[in-house]
Structure formats: structure tokens, C-alpha cells
């Protein structure tokens, strides 16, 4: 081909580029508009209307938030209501699964055959949560469950009971039990995060005479900050949209007296059991709002780059991503 | 240029593929007739005892069927969405009467007034499904919830006597606990999503509050928080639940999965089990099973009879065949076959007493002189059921919380 022809081809190709982008972008945009944006706006609108179709303003929000199913602080005993229960999950489940995962990742860092152990721990994560809920129900069974049996053997008769039959043991049993199901996630992400820290830092700390704790506090923990952000965000998002595990372990009402009830379950009841789509839309909007808060915070910290050490976070995240990809492939295999 | 070539290539290959598929594909096979789909709540041994009835229908009419087990609690949330899409997952579905009537009046259930013959049924059997001249479903066989089941051999071995007064009932529970004849509490509490506890409560109300108490609660003319209802709970049920009053711990176990509970009770882990009459079909040999109603109540006391109701969705793909099955299920031929296997009581007339196994004949004898009541939470229906069940679970966990439980149950009552 002559130089002129080559130039013409390049020119044609470059003039098509913007159109091609638009053409490839259109199907996804159309799908997103119809399947995500439109339903989201409809849900938001629905939350401001009565079932009769009359405009309700914030009435629905008032009635849902004022309902004892959502917030019950009458005597500060279980059930606390769905909103407080969701926050309790975050307050207890998040640190437990985060630090257990971190501890396991650090412990297994230099252990031969660690990948096999990690795979076993990660099994909880790949187990469908609906199955996880059923397993938890059996784990807490007074006769056949390992948990009450273990407490019985330890002589703690107060906990050698049917855990799902009492509000306190039900709620906290599910929270603690789900740590087992989720800890595989933080373990894998932290394991990948640890590989991004250059060995030189540890060697330098060792030469300076730093203890193991000092090395962890001054080197490992700060450099794992982007990893921690990822684990925290993903875990909070999971805890907010929690549904299947509670549904399977209890019933659509959140178990004994509604002790383990959560927002997503409440939304399900409103929509598909009571047929009240307006109140369900209120809960859905609240859930979306809370989820957006967390996602926006994460987005600002890492993607946009606001906040202290944002650049370092971005660089570390890129390194983490590069290291995590082969790990993901191995796990998938 | 490259883009033009790619687009042209795509066009050519698409057209070629389309033509190849059109001309080379085998001729479309004749459409196969889908079997009549039936959704019912029974699984395991209960299902095995229902299938012969469907087989009889198949042999009589030549209409093949497919039976699918689905819990009614799940269908409560699934069916409204099917109906909204003007579709149905099956041609005939078993659901509680309140559901059938509610969705029937909204046009989602076919009117079976010309299909099921009301005159075939015992008086009032179809009342919960009626709206004026329309009948939105049919009643299959039913079950009663007559009292506490026990093994005759177990009572004989420990010399226990069936009590005739409430004081005697308390003494029996105390004796069972003191003797250590069972490794656990005297009574096992059934659970699942919570309905077995509601059956217990209905029996206490019908016995010590009288049948009118159940009827007034269902009619919403008597509140759960009223003194009379509170007293039945406080003076009878809660006494047996509260540790240190009748039994040292509680007389009742923590709620356990009801069907596995049957096996535990039958092998002697517990002495008494409150359950519906279907339990007679779940134990072997059932000649050893006996039932005792709560003693010393209001005379006449009531007993809950819960029929298995079915309906034909308006959107059934085989509407006429489904109506034929509905008529068959409301016939004495079908119900006689069902009652012979035990655990069921016919809702139609014309089923001879000789068709019942001995154990069910004894149950029938226990019903003499009692007022027949419909199932309370099935009749009220809706979201009340779920709240009712979980609040009773809460009462079992903490009997001292009676007032809060009754307040919450009352708050869940539909207007």
C-alpha cells in the first residue's frame, strides 16, 4: 500500500474511533438505564406515595422509622429492630472478621502448605449464604449442634441450649457464626496485600532492632491501609444487604421475637408478604442511602484521591491489584 | 475500510447461519402435553400417602399429573407476584383458606361453585372460601389438633394416668420430670417457622377460654390484651413454661424442628407432644399412639379442625382439567382413599367410619360433644401469622414477657 493509502486508512480509522466508542457504549448504557437507573428512580418515587397512589411526602419514612420493627429502644433489650441490628452486625462482625483474617494471613505468611489451609478457610466464602444459614442452624441445634455440645462439655450449661430458640443467642450466634463464612474474604485480600509490601522494609526494621509488634505497628499495618479499606468497605456493604443467612437460619420474621431481623428481610416482608411496596421502597431507599455513603467514602479515599495519603493509597492499590490477579486465577483454578 | 469489511463479514455470516438453521434443522416435534401441575405442602411420608389419590385420578381420567412440594409459607410471598404477572406456577394449589378467599375475590382464583358440590361436604366446610354465591376453592381432607400425644406403652410402663383436671395435668408433668422417665423436659415443643406453637396456644384458648374465645379473636371482637385472654395464658400455659412453677426448669423443651421432633418423642426422649392428627401417619406402630386433650376446661370446649384447602388459579394452563381434579378431591372416593392411610379426616359426607384406621376412629370419638373451630391464624392470615409465630417463640424463650408478647400480637392483628 502506498503512503497515501496508508494515511487515508489511518484517517478513516481515527475518524471512526469516537463513533465506535459510542456504538459499543450504547448497549450497556441502555441496559443500565432500563435495569438500574429507571427501577432505582421508581423505587425512590414509590417511597413518597401511599399505596392508594396519593402523595405521602415523608409519611412513609416516618411510619417505617417509627415502627418498632425498625428501631426498638423501648427497654434496650433484644429485639432492637432491623436498623440497629444491621449496625450491630457492622460493630461486631466487621472487626472480628477483619482482624481474624489479618491474623490468619500474617500467621500463614511463612507456613509451608499455607495455600491449602487458606483454601479450606475460603470454602466458607464460596458457600452460598443460604446454605451457610442452614449450616448455622444445625451448628446451634441443642441435640446435634457442635456449639451447644462444646459448651456442655466445658460445663457452661447456660450456653448448652438451642441457640436459635433464645433472642440473645440467636442474634449473637448468627453474627459470630457468619464470621466463619466471611473470614476467608479478609484472609485472601490481606494475603495479597502482604505480598505488596517490599521485603526491604521488614529487613530494615529488623536491622534497627524493631520487635515483631513494632514491625507490625509501624510497617505492616500502615502499608496494609488500602487493603484494610477494601476489606472494610466490602464487609460493610455485605452487612448492610444481609438477607439470605438470616432468612435461612431463622424465618421471614427474623426468628424468635424478630431478634435477628435485618433491613433487607424487613423489605422482603413489606413487599412480598404484606404487598406494601411503598414501605418496602422506603426500606430499599434507606439501604441504598447507607450503601451509597460507604461506597462514596471508599470512592473518595481511593479512586478520586481525596484525603491524606491518597496517592500512596492509589499506588498501593494498583500493586495490590497486580498481585491479586494471579492469586485470583490460582483460586479459580 | 476495515470496519466496513468487518460489518459486511458479520452480515454475511449471520444470514448464512440463519438460512442453515432454517433449512437444516429437523422438523419441529409435535408439542407434548404438559402434565397437570399440583402444588401441595406434603413431602416425605405425607406425600407418599397423597400420591395414590392423584394416581387414582390419573387412572380414572387419563390425565397425567406432576406433584410439586412447596411450603405454604413460601407460596404466601411467591404467588402474589405470579398473579401480578397473570400467571400461575401450577393448575391446582393447596393454600390456607384466608389466602384463597383474599386472592379469589381479587379475581386470581377460579370460581368453583359449579365444580365442587357443596352438598357433598359437611355443613359449613366451604364457608371460609365463599363470597356470596362464589366458591373460590375446595376443601380436601382435614386434620384435628386434639391435644397431647403420648405412647400408651410408655404411660403403662411408668404407671402414668391420663389426668382429668388441670391440677392433675400439672401433677403428671411434675411426676414425669421427677421420675426422670425422659432425658429431657416432659413436653417437646415443635417448631419450624412457628406454627406448632400457635396450635398449642389455640388449644389452651379453646379449652380454658372456651370456643367462643377463639371465635371472638378471629372476629376481632376480643383483643389479645383483654383480661380473659391474658388469664388463660397466665394461669395455664405460662405456668408450665415458667421454670420453678410446675417443673423445675420448664415443662416444655425449646422449640425444635417439628418433624424430627416426632422421632425424638416417639423413641422416648420426651413424654408428650402437641401436634395435629397427621402425626398418626408418621409413627409405627400407630396402634400405640394415644391422645389426651387438656383436662378440666370450659364445657363444651373446642377443638381446632384444619382442612387442607385448594384452589384453581384463574391463569391455570389446564383450567378444565384442574377443575376436574378439584371435583375429584371433593369426592368421597378420593377422600376415602386418603383417610384409610391414617392421619386424615374427611370433609365430605359419605366416607364410612369403617374406612378410618382404629387410631383415627378414636380421635373421632374424642371430638364428640366438642365445638369444631377453624384454625385461628390460618383464618386471620396475612402478615399476622408470621408475627404471631415469632412472638410465641419469644414467649417460650421468656415467659415473664407475657404482656409484651400479647401487646405485639394484638398490634399485628389486621384492622
Give an account of the 3D structure.
The complex is a heterodimer of chains A (333) and B (415). In chain A, helix 7 crosses helix 14 and helix 12 (263-273) packs antiparallel against helix 13. Chain A has 14 helices and no strands. Chain A is mainly α and 333 residues long. The two termini of chain A are 46 Å apart. Helices cover 73% and strands 0% of the residues of chain A. Chain A folds into 2 domains: 1-38; 84-332, Orthogonal Bundle (MetI-like fold). The longest helix of chain A is centred in the N-terminal third of the chain and has 44 residues, at 3-46. Chain B has helices spanning 2-24, 44-61, 72-84, 97-105, 152-157, 166-179, 195-209, 211-218, 227-241, 258-266, 319-329, 332-340, 358-366, 376-380, 384-397, 402-412; strands at residues 36-40, 65-69, 92-94, 130-131, 134-135, 138-145, 147-151, 187-188, 190-191, 256-257, 272-275, 289-292, 302-311, 371-373. In chain B, the strands form 4 sheets. In chain B, strands 1, 2, 3, 6, 13 and 14 form a 6-stranded mixed sheet that branches. In chain B, strands 8-11-7-12 form a 4-stranded mixed sheet. A two-stranded antiparallel sheet of chain B has the order 4-5. In chain B, strand 1, helix 2 and strand 2 (65-69) form a beta-alpha-beta unit. In chain B, helix 2 (44-61) runs antiparallel to helix 12, helix 7 (195-209) packs across helix 8 (211-218) and helix 7 crosses helix 9. Classes of the chains: A mainly alpha (333), B alpha/beta (415).
Number of helices of chain A: 14
Strand content of chain B: 5-15%
Task: Tally the structural domains of chain B.
Answer: 2
Largest sheet of chain A: none
Q: What quaternary form is this?
A: heterodimer
| CATH homologous superfamily annotation of the largest domain in chain B | Periplasmic binding protein-like II
Give the helix/strand class of chain A.
mainly alpha
**Secondary-structure element sequence of chain A?**
HHHHHHHHHHHHHH
**Percent of residues in beta strands of chain A:** under 5%
Residue share in helix of chain A = over 70%
Helix-strand topology string of chain B: HEHEHEHEEEEHHEEHHHEHEEEHHHEHHH
Q: Helix count of chain B, per DSSP?
A: 16
Note poorly predicted spans of chain B.
Answer: none
